[in-house]
Write a structure and sequence with these properties.
Rossmann fold, 270 residues, alpha/beta, globular, two-stranded antiparallel sheet
Length: 270
């Protein structure tokens, strides 16, 4: 299980006389920063090669504090509505998007008593939210939009929790941006808003699917998930720009798989 170093980081740019990018502080603010020229900073960390490194990425440590901070940051940027729809998109495969989304949903359901719906967009039987919770998937939401039916046919409730699961399509369906219009998206989202307090969309990375872009304009906000210290700034900027150009609203960046460094003097005592 990956542990996040930063829950959410807001991005802005100030160009100096040499047009250099400047780093921004962690988000955790009461209100959005004033609009600046679009940019996102790289993750910068200097470390001598001889310094020891500990990686807590798979240590199984609790993510609850980070998820609560993430929730505070997100809600400060969202409209004050009874229900919100958030989309999580990774910069590339393997950054832990599904894990972060799942842990976020579990913490919100447990700590706030909210009803949470997790939606798999890029459904793969071997790596889906359904598999993680050990439940069998039902018909996809896209089938409901195209053929009609009841919500019970497309939503699976996880026993003894306030979490439900669904999938947008199955692995036989693709090109969601072509087969389903924005009107259809908004129609199904508005219906789901009446059923759930929070809807989280687990999207594939843009590098492997364009379906994520097709959905971004119809949600309340997008959280980009990147791998700390490995995802280059131009990649983050490109991802952000593509989402914005399609009408999506980028709330910020969640840095995952952050390494925790131990100074040499402390390491000698371990």
């Amino acid at each position: 299980m990956s542990k996040m170093y930063e829950a959410l980081q807001y991005a802005y740019t100030e160009q100096d006389s040499k047009s250099r990018e400047r780093l921004v502080p962690p988000l955790f603010v009461e209100k959005p920063l004033e609009k600046k020229e679009d940019t996102l900073p790289p993750v910068v960390r200097t470390l001598a090669e001889e310094e020891p490194v500990l990686d807590y990425g798979n240590a199984g440590l609790s993510m609850e504090p980070e998820m609560l901070q993430l929730h505070q940051s997100i809600t400060s940027l969202l409209p004050d509505t009874q229900s919100n729809i958030l989309q999580f998109i990774g910069s590339h495969s393997g950054v832990g998007t599904s894990s972060i989304l799942r842990e976020y949903g579990k913490v919100i359901a447990k700590q706030y008593g909210k009803s949470v719906l997790l939606i798999d967009v890029d459904f793969q039987p071997s790596s889906s939210q359904h598999q993680a919770f050990g439940v069998h998937p039902r018909e996809p939401l896209q089938s409901l939009m195209q053929n009609g039916g009841s919500m019970d046919s497309v939503i699976t409730r996880v026993e003894q929790t306030r979490i439900s699961l669904s999938r947008f399509a199955d692995n036989r369906q693709s090109n969601l941006h072509v087969s389903t219009s924005h009107t259809d998206y908004r129609r199904i989202w508005e219906f789901l808003r009446k059923q759930f307090d929070l809807i989280l969309i687990d999207s594939p990375p843009l590098g492997s699917s364009v379906d994520s872009l097709a959905l971004s304009a119809a949600v309340d906000g997008v959280v980009m998930v990147v791998e700390a210290e490995k995802t280059r700034s131009p990649i983050i900027l490109t991802l952000k720009d593509r989402i914005i150009r399609r009408g999506g609203r980028v709330l910020g960046v969640a840095f995952n798989k952050q390494r925790h460094y131990i100074p040499g003097w402390a390491y000698r005592w371990l």
